[in-house]
């Protein structure tokens, strides 16, 4: 399971509409690299790909995750920080043993 917070849900819905992706959503993936070994990737997409896990936010936003990335994201809560100091997605990932200071990479 991947949880989507209210703040993340609002931003995902806003951005999919802005990009004309009425049935689309946010793709989240994991790739090798970053200062901690693995890093998160993002893309706005018109729909899920075959084999994707699809998660829905409280108000209907959608997040697509490929099977390989889901191994590292299972149990994660996706949030969005709306403060003036640091706007951006926040991953509360129980699989991460450590993460970098900016929160965009992690190790398992």
Q: Which features characterize this protein?
A:
108 residues; alpha+beta; Hypothetical Protein Aq_1857, Chain: A; six-stranded mixed beta sheet; three-stranded mixed beta sheet
Describe this structure in words.
- The chain is globular and about 35 Å long.
- It has a single domain, classed as Hypothetical Protein Aq_1857, Chain: A (Sandwich).
- β8 and β9 form a beta hairpin.
- 19% of the residues lie in helices and 38% in strands.
- The protein starts with a strand and ends with a strand.
- It is of the alpha+beta class.
- The model has no long low-confidence stretch (mean pLDDT 87).
- A 6-stranded mixed sheet has the order 4-5-2-3-9-8. A 3-stranded mixed sheet has the order 1-6-7.
Outline:
This protein is of the alpha+beta class. It has helices at 6-18, 67-73; strands at residues 3-4, 25-32, 38-45, 53-56, 62-65, 77-81, 88-92, 98-99, 105-107.
């Amino acid at each position: 399971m991947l949880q989507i917070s209210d703040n993340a849900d609002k931003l995902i819905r806003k951005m999919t509409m802005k990009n004309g992706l009425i049935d689309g959503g946010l793709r989240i993936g994991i790739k090798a690299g970053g200062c901690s070994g693995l890093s998160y990737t993002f893309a706005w997409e018109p729909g899920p790909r075959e084999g994707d896990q699809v998660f829905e936010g409280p108000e209907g936003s959608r997040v697509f995750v490929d099977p390989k990335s889901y191994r590292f994201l299972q149990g994660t809560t996706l949030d969005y920080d709306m403060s003036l100091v640091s706007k951006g997605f926040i991953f509360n990932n129980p699989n991460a043993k450590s993460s970098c200071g900016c929160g965009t990479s992690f190790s398992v």
